[in-house]
Specification:
Strand content: 25-35%
Number of strands: 4
Strand order of the largest sheet: 2-3-1-4
Helix content: 25-40%
Low-confidence stretches: 6-20
Largest sheet: 4 strands, antiparallel
Order of helices and strands: HEEEHEH
Distance between the termini: 51 Å
């Protein structure tokens, strides 16, 4: 088995999405530990910023917004890394983008 076959085999066994799964705009929710204020929204591609606290009082920041493509998602995640924030989760939301846009305009 050559390297390409091994990569393909690992990706399919890990349940990876096919490349076309989000080749256009998708709605994402990204959660990080700590607090970011709304002023970071522009630097994070216009993501909506919401700070929340869990039952123990720890702060988390929830980022939500439309991401143009996988390259844009990678850029946002790199900026989170640049801020030295601990990534909690990245979720592609299944809600239709049309409804999200109506609620956030």
């Amino acid at each position: 088995m050559d390297n390409e076959e091994q990569k393909t085999d690992r990706a399919s066994s890990a349940g990876a999405y096919p490349a076309e799964a989000c080749s256009a705009e998708c709605l994402y929710e990204i959660v990080v530990e700590g607090e970011l204020d709304q002023s970071w929204s522009g630097w994070l591609n216009g993501m909506r910023v919401q700070v929340q606290k869990n039952a123990s009082g720890a702060s988390f920041t929830r980022l939500e917004g439309i991401v143009a493509d996988q390259s844009s998602l990678r850029g946002i995640l790199t900026r989170i890394w640049d801020l030295n924030l601990e990534l909690v989760s990245v979720n592609r939301m299944d809600d239709p983008l049309v409804n999200w846009r109506k609620d956030h305009e």
